Amino acid sequence: MLDPALLRPGRFDRQVVVPNPDIRGREQILKVHMRKVPLGSDVDARVIARGTPGFSGADLANLVNEAALLAARRNKRTVNMSEMEDAKDKVMMGAERRSMVMTDDEKKLTAYHEAGHAIVMLHVKGHEPLHKVTIIPRGRALGLAMFLPERDRLSQSITQIRALIASAFGGRVAEEIIFGADNVTTGASQDIKVATQYARRLVTEFGFSDKLGPLRYADNEEEVFLGHSVAQRKNVSDATAAVIDSETRRFVEDGEAEAKRILEEHHDQLVILAEALLEYETLDRAQIDALLRGEDIQKPEPPEPPVGANPSGGPRASIPTGGRRKPTAEPDGDPEPQPGS
Fold first, then answer.
1. Which residue is catalytic, options 27, 114, 128, 258?
2. 279 counts as catalytic
3. Nearest one of 276, 309, 278 to 292, comparing CA atoms
């Protein structure tokens, strides 16, 4: 972002690039920050590092701090893997919105939508491993199906990008299969946006279109800054733009067709997973595998109330009780009068 005149030889001869840490770096950074908190025996820094691609050192420090705060709110003396996972989800996708009111029909639709994403992720060729599915709203999303990269990807194959397009349509296709084409909702708008972006980049940047060949057709999208062009120029003809649109549509429709094939072939698994989400709300990979094998899983215990919460569920007094003396009962059962009462 500097003027090229500042970077000419003789001024700043050495340029040091400091990128975000890779998976090994994230693991080591997490271990440094974890020294400050008491950890449970199930905490695995490697698993957390796998699920945080692109995180900086400050992001990882924030994750550990959030996990410690969650453990304190849950009256725990140690930070366990559940707190780490919840903190990671909060940092990446926003806090849970458990207070959000959803009807039974909306919950059912969300469960099948997320189950559709998950089943496609499990069965499409080239996709990263499925990690977790939830129908608890976070941020702007009503539910999430998350995958966990096995390692940091420096590049992607066309098979992997096609798998991402197919999994993006898993939710919309599941709605259509279960509820009918007339009842498909607008919940897949972000999925369609992501799939379209992947497909257009396949055509215009990565050279995977047979009709257009290995040429770059993306417009000049550089930021207006020192050393960059202010004017945006169009570098494709109208005929080429029409072919780009056609090829983008082909990749998107192929992904949608693949998602439909998988969900129709594994319809029973879609129903099993959606019904389990309605009961358990959140399922990890081990629980999903057990369900699809026909095994029963235990319902997770509800989280403990925060420190200071009223266990009776009634309203809590806003006046602190630390400096007041509790009334003591007399033998006849009447409370002892307090000063000023």
1. 114
2. no
3. 276
